[in-house]
Amino acid sequence: MISLYNILEGVKVISFTGNTEKKISKIVFDSRKTEKDSLFVAVRGSRTDGHDYIPDALDAGAKAVVCERLPEKPDPGISWIVTDDSAKALGQLSSNFFGNPSRMLKLVGITGTNGKTTIATLLYRLFTGLGYKCGLFSTVCNYVVNRELPATHTTPDPVQLNRIMAQMTEEGCDYAFMEVSSHALDQQRTAGLVFAGGIFTNLTHDHLDYHKTFDNYLAAKKSFFDLLPSDAFALVNADDRNSSVMLQNCKARHYTYSTRGMADFRCSIIEESFEGMGLRIMGNEVWTRFIGDYNASNLLAVYSASELLKAKKPEILTLISDLKPVPGRLEVIRIADITGIVDYAHTPDALVNVLDTINRIREGNIKLITVIGAGGDRDKTKRPIMAAISAERSTKLILTSDNPRTEDPEKILDDMEAGIDPGFVNKTLRISNRREAIKTAVMLAEKGDVILVAGKGHETYQEIMGTRHHFDDREELRNALAKK
Asked: Which of 107, 232, 285, 397 minimizes the number of CB atoms within 10 Å of its CB?
């Protein structure tokens, strides 16, 4: 239990009524999770408004409420704190409640459209390899040292974030690496956290169903760098035209990385195959198990951040050569002389990167058979674009379901099919059942061919009409190839 007064530090309070010395047992923003002596924070969401659930929270035992507007008749026995932004206040309150754990860690945030998971995970693995205890927040999984915690969101809510970070500090973690999503930034989930560094990967077409415009999406990403402290570092990908925007008004120390031109940190690809690629990083040659220009960029970001965090160059290079790809990110499965690749690519830019990488490596008459879908209840504008990209760069294309959610899978495929050039229609199949689509791709493949199954990557489920069914692209591809 902690006093209400202590957890209000740093919160912008417009008005306060009630007792500041009340002891708080728990912070909640979901009235259903309220218990006796809780502090309820009424947050306005995209679908619901927490202010509508204040009576429920009080009935469940809340003794204090943070809100942006008071009820018509506020209960005098309750402590009422009015602020101008409840979502931002929730972040600061959560940090205070758990003892501001981010201040006791070297916390590095990674934001951008693509590459967040790979960079965060590889930094976690590299610094673990250096002998440090580390934490990780990622789309795939969260880790406290070696203990795995399930990830429900790319960036957890503020209460969960700070609870897990408090566990990290209790277990002696020195570093924590966090994927920072645009949704999290827009919803102020990282408010109250102190970052030692921030990394920007790139910005391409994604999440416009939520942000509505690209400018809003850009602003969400930029807000992360605007709030970095002066003693932190801001590391940006100079190969992305939006990188300079991230550094505008950023108080942190500025650094750039590039695989194409001049920058503080540089690298280039020396050789490449489906087994891996050789890189020259800052004049040093190193063999890696990764392929693709974008993975060269991701590895350079990992190298650069490691140097900025004071790791020694020889140790960084040695560990980079030992790192393995993140699950579902250009994950190679080779059976029956066929190369299967599973990748999370679910944006136009990511898809271009994956397909161009494969096409650069494959030789002669080797065919590329691509299986791709698009998620339901998400940005519809990218569906025809992704289909067009896939058709143009593949020998054979199979359109299928991804996570249709509440949409009709056939209508999603209609949207995708509309983007395909008439000249590519004859090489395109439409199979809404994803398992059958993967089986068909394997049936069509011959010795030496490449099959790309894109869109879901590490996911082990398919969401249909609100229900999640077990489905793993890697399992399906292995099973189909084994029967070839």
From this structure: 285
Q: 10 Å Cβ neighbour count for 466?
A: 7
Class for the domain spanning 2-97: alpha beta
Task: Transcribe 313-369 into DSSP letters.
Answer: HHHHHHHHHH--PPTTSSEEEEETTEEEEEE---SHHHHHHHHHHHHHH--TT--EE
Average pLDDT value for residue range 117-143: 96
Backbone φ/ψ region at 183: left (φ over 0), alpha (ψ -120 to 50), beta: alpha
Exposure string of 117-150, with b = 16+ CB inside 10 Å and e = fewer, is bbbbbbbbbbbbbbebbbbbbbbbebbbeeeebe
The pLDDT, as a whole number, for residue 205 is: 59
Kindly list the distances between the CA atom of residue 119 and the CA atoms of 179, 200, 411, in Å, as whole numbers in the listed order. Answer: 9, 10, 35
Q: Are 322 and 129 in contact (CB under 8 A)?
A: yes
* CATH architecture entry for 101-322: 3-Layer(aba) Sandwich (3.40)
Residue range 279-303: mean pLDDT, rounded: 96
The pLDDT-based confidence of 90 (bands split at 50, 70, 90) is: very high
Confirm if 435 and 474 have CB atoms less than 8 A apart. Answer: no
Average pLDDT over residues 385-408: 97
Residue 71 has pLDDT above 60, yes or no: yes
85: tokens are 């932004």
Alpha carbon of 385 to those of 43, 164, 191: distances in Å?
36, 39, 35
Instruction: Classify residue 31 by its DSSP letter.
Output: G
Distance CA 154, CA 479 (A): 29
The confidence band for 151, taking pLDDT boundaries of 50, 70 and 90, is confident
When pLDDT is averaged across residues 307-324 and rounded to a whole number, the result is 97
| The architecture CATH gives domain 331-482 | Alpha-Beta Complex (3.90)
Helix (H) or strand (E) holding 67: strand 64-67
Contact between 456 and 403 under an 8 Å Cβ cutoff? The reply is yes
State how far the Cα of 36 lies from the Cα of 378, in Å rounded to an integer.
38
Instruction: Please report, in angstroms and rounded to a whole number, the separation of the first and last CA atoms in the chain.
Output: 61
Burial of 381 (0-12, 13-18, 19+ CB in 10 A): exposed
Instruction: Give 52-63 as a 3 state SS string.
Output: HHHHHHHHCCCC
Give Cα separations from 279 to 236, 269, 272 (angstroms): 20, 5, 9
pLDDT at residue number 209: 55
Give start-end residues of each CATH 3.40.1190.10 domain in the chain. 101-322
pLDDT surpasses 90 at 10: yes
